């Protein structure tokens, strides 16, 4: 098995197993931004090749040890070569592509003139908190001071979480990203 000959000051924990620098063949971390430029969602991707004779499962966590400021990543896919496993993992922002679950915003038993349920308007920061909870974040930190305004049900019904957050971020001139504490 060929080993890396250079020294790097970090290791990876993948699915609970630690890979020291001599077991890491390569690693790349990149960021992409969605939205229109004045606000949007920052998604981070980690691609790594490690010396291993086993496979990893989709969704297993990846932590970079010794490099501050990075979130936890989650494996999206892998492929094997003779003595390495190449993984691609993303931070939790990747989970924002799911449809927003607005059922908890139903206004009791009220119905409109067509007999459809009536849904409540919600504050922008309240919407961010609901999306964070739905997508597995530990919270939507600092949104109370940044996100202002009310979002009506005709905006959030049928929308994806990432689309809603992109619009909120653009309107507020901020960016959504996953922090080291998964918030």
Describe this structure in a few short sentences.
The chain is an alpha+beta fold. Helices cover 17% and strands 35% of the residues. The chain has helices at residues 124-134, 143-146, 153-156, 161-172, and strands spanning 11-14, 17-19, 24-33, 40-51, 61-65, 73-80, 84-90, 106-111, 117-119, 122-123, 150-151, 175-176.
Describe the structure.
The protein is an alpha+beta fold. The chain has 4 helices and 12 strands. The strands form 3 sheets. Strands 1, 2, 3, 4, 5, 6, 7 and 12 form an 8-stranded mixed β-sheet that branches. A hairpin with a 2-residue loop joins strand 1 and strand 2. The longest helix is centred in the last third of the chain and has 12 residues. The two termini are 39 Å apart.
The number of distinct helices, counting runs of at least 4 residues, comes to: 4
Count of DSSP E strands? 12
Main beta sheet, described?
A: 8 strands, mixed
How far do the termini sit from each other? Answer: 39 Å
Strand content: 25-35%
Shape: elongated
Helix content: 10-25%
Structural class: alpha+beta
| Element-level helix/strand string | EEEEEEEEEEHHEHHE
Roughly what is the average pLDDT, rounded to an integer?
A: 84
The radius of gyration over CA amounts to: 20 Å
């Amino acid at each position: 098995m060929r080993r890396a000959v250079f020294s790097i000051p970090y290791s990876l924990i993948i699915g609970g197993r630690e890979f020291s620098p001599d077991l890491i063949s390569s690693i790349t971390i990149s960021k992409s931004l969605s939205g229109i430029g004045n606000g949007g969602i920052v998604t981070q991707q980690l691609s790594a090749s490690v010396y291993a004779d086993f496979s990893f499962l989709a969704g297993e966590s990846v932590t970079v040890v010794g490099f501050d400021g990075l979130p936890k990543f989650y494996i999206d896919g892998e492929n094997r070569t003779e003595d390495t496993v190449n993984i691609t993992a993303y931070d939790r922002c990747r989970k924002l592509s799911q449809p927003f679950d607005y059922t908890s915003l139903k206004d009791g038993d009220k119905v409109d003139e067509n007999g459809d349920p009536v849904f409540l308007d919600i504050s922008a920061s309240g919407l961010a908190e609901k999306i964070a909870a739905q997508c597995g974040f530990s919270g939507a930190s600092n949104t109370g001071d940044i996100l202002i305004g009310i979002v009506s049900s005709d905006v959030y019904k049928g929308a994806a979480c990432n689309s809603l957050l992109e619009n909120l971020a653009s309107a507020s001139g901020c960016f959504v990203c996953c922090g080291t504490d998964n918030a």
